[in-house]
Amino acid sequence: MKIIGLLLVPLTSMVVLWGVITAVTATESLELREYKTLWTNLRHPAYKLINELQQERLVSAKHLRHMAAQTAVEAQRSRTDAAEDTFRRLSDNSKDRSEEIRTQVNAVYTQLNRLDVIRGEIDTSLSDRLHAVESYDAIVDELFGLHRRVALIDDIPIYEQSRVNIDMSYAKELLTREQAIALGPTTAAERRMFTQIVGNRRFLVDQALGELDPPLRDPQVALITSAAYQRMRMMEDQIISGRSPRDWLSVTEELAETFQAAQMRASTNLNERADPVADQVLSRAFMLAGTALVLVIVSIVFSLRMGNRLSRELGALRLAALEVAQERLPHVVGKLRRGERVELPEVSVASTTVEIDDVGQAFSTVQQTAVEAAIGQARLNEGVGHVFRNLARRSQTLLHRQRIQLEDMQHRATDPDALEDLFKLDHLTTRMRRHAEGLIILSGATPGRGWSRPVPLLDVARGAAAEVEDYPRVTVEPMSGQRLAGPVVGDVIHLVAELIENATVYSPVHTQVIVRGEEAARGFVFEVEDRGLGMSAEVLAELNERLASPPEFDLADSDRLGLFVVSRLAARHDIRVTLRGSPYGGTTAIVLIPAEHVADPDPEPHVKEPARPMRVVRSE
Predict the structure, then answer these.
(1) What pLDDT sits at residue 616?
(2) Where exactly are the transmembrane stretches of this chain (predicted)?
């Protein structure tokens, strides 16, 4: 999962990048197509409304000069209202495309709402000619502001030509303003405004002609260089000087219509240019997105295949390593401990990755090294065992000869003090024999001491107590007459003696160690109870675990040789040894001897036990 996670990070980044590229290119195409929608719903009806407002401004100027009847004014106002209704209806479909467009359209609505006020002032003669013209100018200026706001497009050539074309349209608007002001004799204020409008229009025309591309510039140049346009310029100079040309209205009306037709053709041409560009951008977007998608898919497939292959190889390596650690090595080590021959196959991991193959070889090397170390340890343990066994056998031989001499000396001794010393030496020899047997047990061999006939379990307990240094503190309580099978007697005496000695060592010298025995449902139970300081629950649990499952003998753990000997002897005869807390605060060792090692009491009559418990009984 970590490998796949690492692969998913760049793959996810690639997918996100592909999505961003596709979205950006597709958005460009949609914005170019939206340009046509905005032309249909905003700019084209705005141009028509501007044209009708220009006509209404001219008719109103004529009416204020008493050159037009009220019926003509009303007729033009009706056409303006129809164009306004069309603009409001269509603009409502597209004004929410952006916050800027919505703000500009609302500004146009605000100016159009003043139209009734302007008309009322004209009808009641509350507005002079100049004020009426300026009122209409404010409405038209907001409409041209909408043109400039909507003309924004990501295609730079189309945007530049659209901006210049709007300037040319505004130049035509300035021409209609001149036309409305100079219908007849003008006042000084009217001439000042007329002069400003003329200068602005000429500047816009001169600047725009240099920026238009040939298809759009040629019709404009033909118009500017026409005889009618030159005649109009002469008339403008005359009006600025204070005269009133007679043919001013007819000349400007013809030029205004020509200007209007040229601007509409140019706007339509620019609108049609956006479609091929949008198609080209969309095609480029599809091609780029398709190529990127193919690359992303190829990358995903390749990455997932590589990731799956690495995952499989690492999984096989993991299983091989776990098999070596949990099954193969423990099995090999167990066979080595039992002295069996082992064959060690190599760790084989089918991999095409050099690093994983190297790790597999390293595991084989580690396995070989571990087995060699186990072999060396087994040989060392075997050598130590031989040393223990040889030393113990030699000690047993010497101790046996020593006991024979002690028995002979005891038979010939007559001095009570000398006899007591001989008994102490005999007891010391017995303890030394037990320690020699402990070495034999540590070496893995079986001590030679044994009995051919069953021995009463009471004698077994007394014999175990006799092999302890501090035997006067040991009290063996009377117990039932069950007997212990002869082959097991020596090991059980050694086991119980180790437990009794441990109890005497770890309890105060003034306290007693009690040895009890009684028949149980599954055999016979010895209890060895001391009254020492006891042990914590954790230590008891650890020791019980070691008694239940004897570990390998560790030369470094020499402080617990007795515990190791007890666990070995118990495991050899399926005897269960358990430690638990004593009610007196010390520790109680419970030894459960299986029923197959316990025989019924001897049918012959037993000698009555003395009233005082016997402390020591020595047995062969």
Answers:
(1) 47
(2) 285-304
